[in-house]
Design a protein that fits this description.
The structure is a single chain. The chain is about 20% helix and about 30% strand. It is α+β, with helices and mostly antiparallel strands. It starts with 7 loop residues before the first strand and ends with a strand. Helix 2 crosses helix 9, helix 3 packs antiparallel against helix 9 and helix 10 crosses helix 14. Strands 8, 9, 11, 12, 13, 14, 15 and 16 form an eight-stranded mixed beta sheet that branches. The chain has a five-stranded mixed beta sheet with strand order 5-4-1-17-18. A five-stranded mixed beta sheet has the order 28-23-32-26-33. The radius of gyration is 25 Å and the shape is globular.
Length: about 625
């Protein structure tokens, strides 16, 4: 009896994610070239990766339009849509085969998004954002096509051709309805990713998809799957567990997978590059990596199946012993030339003078309560809210202001901090102060809600045992942008107490209390006191799940972009009275010290930080400087 071998073909899937309008290897906030970001560098890796194989597919996982001044400048262009947006033009030139949309694609509104994506020469797929919900996911009226079917003629080892259809389906965090409520309310709604996938993947298979790739703009984190419901913003592991999905491209959380670090999920295995046994990849942020999944597909007589896979994240740069980056990829010359006009236009905009600051504005010491950059934002917020509440029933209530450090290292690296020198301020500096497209609003909150808000913020800290030496201050599971401070209050944070909230904002220990001596104007804050809290729209509408937030608490929503509001405040001389004091302090713990990491630029500012017990402790091999704080 003659045995016929099963045919096998190979397909490489290449992926980018979270480009955030980083077309070139350039930091617009510091006005200098860099080696750690830029699609122009990733494009060189793409060109090389294509040359290594016979057949490849290039996909993007979203958050490509917003994130640098280049994105903002072209979002404000009155002639937007006359020519392809520079990011879309670049993606067309690189040769993307399909993309999905991240949450930040919605920041500039649906009209801009539709107009911009009309310039794409590739499919845009999104299965879980819909105009109208149907009885089931497969009957939803989706805002964009839920999936695309991409034909490929692949050849086996003997050179025989095989026609396959690659199905690509996309998902974005359902939380866009909260984060982008202003732009989306009444115009669309969402399904959770897993429900949408369960509805559409069988439709894709019936339509002829031999392989299904999920573009999931979300991470794998074990806290994100919500018990397998897929309702969290990071449902990629839940999608990988579904029958019918062959590979997952993840993103949103700016991490790299596979990597040498801790596994992002109990079902993740960096050695095999799989999650729940499915090949998966996550390519960092800003073009820092190119994700690769190499599939060996075998036909079993009925259908094509993944016989073997290999996943890899190729970096455009690596950091040396002291954290200094070394380029591993050069600019793709064609893409650099294409992006040059948009780059020049962005520089002309960002270098315009906008005002003056008498003090340095930086975020290096946000972790210990000294953040002049956030203080500048807080002052502008409260200035705006007081003016607009004048003559309303809320005019007599005390106005407080909440903000956090958006640029505070983390996955952005040791250079990802706000650092604005005293003197003339440019529009670049204003973008550095506030990198997102939020608006300012005001909430009416009680004293008990303020306390709970600060308890939520203080969850970023580890519990410190009295007498501990050089204990880690920050819990790495919590991003530092959750550390809201509130100007107008005096308070201390007791690090010996355990946190009340988990990373998602759920109360895990209601009796725990870290906030001590909470006072306003020298008087203790009572639970039934009433205040106005100015903050950005993301936080005020529920982003981060802070107690007291939500649309029902809003008493004022200006609809003015945060950067425009800050510009008005700076132009009016509002930074002249900026106090050089900490926003909060830690409760004393004699004989105890903690360690935290910050950017190397912190050294120049450390002598002026009015926090006693601060001491520089050297630089680590990732490029961050270490500081010791005696409590």
């Amino acid at each position: 009896m003659q045995v016929t071998s099963r045919p096998r073909v190979a397909l490489r899937i290449m992926a980018t994610t979270d480009l955030h309008a980083h077309l070139l290897a350039y930091d617009y906030y510091r006005d200098r070239a860099i080696d750690t970001a830029g699609l122009s560098r990733t494009a060189s890796l793409i060109r090389a990766a294509r040359a290594e194989v016979a057949d490849a597919l290039l996909l993007d996982n979203g958050d490509f339009l917003q994130g640098t001044p280049l994105g903002d400048v072209h979002a404000d262009d009155r002639n937007a849509g006359a020519d392809p947006h520079p990011v879309i033009a670049a993606m067309n030139a690189v040769g993307f085969d399909a993309v999905t949309l991240g949450n930040h694609e919605f920041d500039y509104g649906l009209d801009f998004l539709r107009r911009t994506m009309d310039g794409a020469r590739f499919p845009v797929v999104l299965a879980n954002v819909v105009r109208r919900l149907g009885p089931s996911a497969a009957t939803d009226d989706t805002l964009f096509p839920p999936y695309a079917l991409i034909p490929r003629r692949l050849h086996d080892a003997t050179g025989r051709p095989h026609d396959l259809t690659i199905g690509v389906i996309g998902f974005t965090p359902p939380q866009i309805m909260q984060w982008n409520r202003d732009q989306l309310q009444g115009r669309c709604t969402v399904r959770c990713a897993v429900d949408a996938a369960r509805g559409w993947v069988p439709v894709m298979r019936a339509a002829g998809a031999d392989v299904v790739v999920a573009l999931s703009h979300g991470g794998f984190g074990p806290e994100a799957g919500d018990g397998g419901s897929g309702a969290g913003e990071n449902a990629s592991a839940d999608l990988a567990a579904l029958d019918g999905i062959d590979a997952v491209i993840a993103g949103h959380v700016h991490e790299v997978f596979p990597s040498a670090g801790p596994e992002p999920h109990p079902a993740a295995d960096s050695r095999s590059g799989t999650v729940h046994g499915k090949p998966a990849v996550m390519a960092g942020l800003w073009g820092s990596h190119l994700g690769l999944i190499d599939l060996q597909l075998e036909h079993d007589g009925t259908r094509w199946r993944v016989a073997r896979s290999r996943s890899e994240a190729r970096a455009i740069a690596r950091r040396g012993a002291e954290g200094a980056p070394t380029a591993l990829a050069s600019d793709d010359p064609d893409l650099a030339e294409l992006a040059a006009p948009a780059h020049a236009r962005t520089l002309a905009f960002t270098r315009r003078t906008a005002g003056h600051s008498p003090v340095a504005l930086h975020s290096y010491f946000a972790a210990i309560g000294y953040d002049t950059a956030a203080r500048a934002v807080m002052r502008a917020q409260s200035w705006t809210v007081r003016a607009q509440l004048a003559g309303t029933p809320h005019a007599d209530l005390p106005v407080l202001s909440a903000a956090s450090a958006f640029k505070a290292g983390g996955r952005g690296g040791p250079d990802y901090y706000t650092d604005i020198a005293p003197g003339p301020m440019t529009l670049r500096d204003l973008s550095d102060l506030y990198v997102f497209t939020n608006t300012v609003l005001a909430l009416r909150v009680s004293g008990s809600e303020l306390r709970a808000w600060l308890e939520r913020a203080a969850s970023v800290y580890k519990t410190i045992r009295p007498g501990a030496r050089d204990a880690a201050l920050l819990d790495p599971a919590y991003p530092l942008y959750l550390l809201d401070a509130i100007e107008g209050l005096d308070y201390r944070i007791d690090l010996s107490a355990a946190p009340r909230y988990d990373v998602k904002g759920a109360v895990t220990a209601p009796g725990n209390a870290r906030i001590r001596d909470l006072a306003h104007d020298g008087a203790p804050v009572r639970d039934d006191d009433a205040f106005i809290l100015a903050c950005n729209s993301h936080r005020g509408l529920g982003g981060g799940h802070f107690p007291g937030s939500g649309p029902e608490r809003v008493v004022l929503h200006t609809q003015e972009a945060m950067r425009d509001m800050i510009l008005r405040h700076v132009a009016a001389g509002g930074l002249g009275a900026l106090p050089a004091t900490p926003l909060f302090r830690f409760a004393p713990m004699p004989g105890t010290s903690v360690m935290f990491a910050t950017g190397p630029g912190a050294l120049a500012h450390a002598p002026d930080v009015p926090v006693p017990g601060l001491d520089h402790a050297g630089r680590d091999d990732t490029g961050f400087d270490r500081f010791r704080l005696a409590l």
